[in-house]
């Protein structure tokens, strides 16, 4: 029987939906290949353009587009002049999604402390062993700017922002994409920890700022063992402070993902 001429051989869109999913893995692979062959922000064309180019129906294309949107590979512009634009996955978006997942799993700040301690020590050790002078100079300049702008009455939000600037330089120096992703998740989830243990505690902020500068200096001096020891010391301090701030309670990010503004605490759900 000629394909498409009878009931069993008919591969029309309506009958296909009854026998197999509308979207095939081959379509997703072709779309991903085309997206990744362009820089971010390039138009792939309109929905009509793409259905004709890939010889699929609108329902099939839209199904694929939803998956690609979730993968942060495209942006869909709707309307008369709409279409599909290429993009790239963003580590911050992945960290937000992972934080929500951890919240739903009722992960605690104590879980965070256990998981992140070893990761932090390793990535700071890698940063200290880096020979990339351009990135080392960026860390040096960032530290100098932060030291010059230090003030004793800074808010928790400002303290967190300053810490993020240093961490980003260190992550660049370590040059390990896996550790970068894992630690971005840890830092995002740990935003609650910072607001909890540093609110109304300027002495703790000052202590951690000074330790942060010592760690940065050890990295610039190429001292991985000293860097690791200072990092471990910092985590011992944080673990002690966490004991008084509900470390065994689950952090709830389902209503408001991300760091709380101006040092305000997030809602914490009993485990």
What is the compact description of this entry?
It is built from 12 helices and 5 strands.
Write the SSE topology.
Layout: H1 13-19, H2 25-36, E1 43-45, H3 47-54, H4 58-70, E2 74-77, E3 83-86, H5 91-104, H6 109-129, H7 133-148, H8 156-174, H9 177-189, H10 191-198, H11 202-220, H12 224-242, E4 250-251, E5 268-269
Antiparallel strand pairs: 1-3, 2-3, 4-5
Helix pairs in contact: 5-9, 6-8, 6-9, 6-11, 6-12, 7-8, 7-11, 8-11, 11-12
Walk me through the structure.
- The chain is elongated.
- The chain is mostly helical.
- Strands 1-3-2 form a 3-stranded antiparallel β-sheet. The protein has a two-stranded antiparallel sheet with strand order 4-5.
- Helix 5 (91-104) packs across helix 9.
- The protein contains 12 helices and 5 strands.
- A hairpin with a 5-residue loop joins strand 2 (74-77) and strand 3.
- It has 2 domains: 16-86, Arc Repressor Mutant, subunit A (Orthogonal Bundle), CATH 1.10.10.10; 92-269, GntR ligand-binding domain-like (Four Helix Bundle (Hemerythrin (Met), subunit A)).
- It has helices at residues 13-19, 25-36, 47-54, 58-70, 91-104, 109-129, 133-148, 156-174, 177-189, 191-198, 202-220, 224-242, and strands at 43-45, 74-77, 83-86, 250-251, 268-269.
- The N and C termini lie far apart (63 Å).
- The longest helix has 21 residues, at 109-129.
- The model is unreliable at 1-22 and 254-271 (pLDDT under 50).
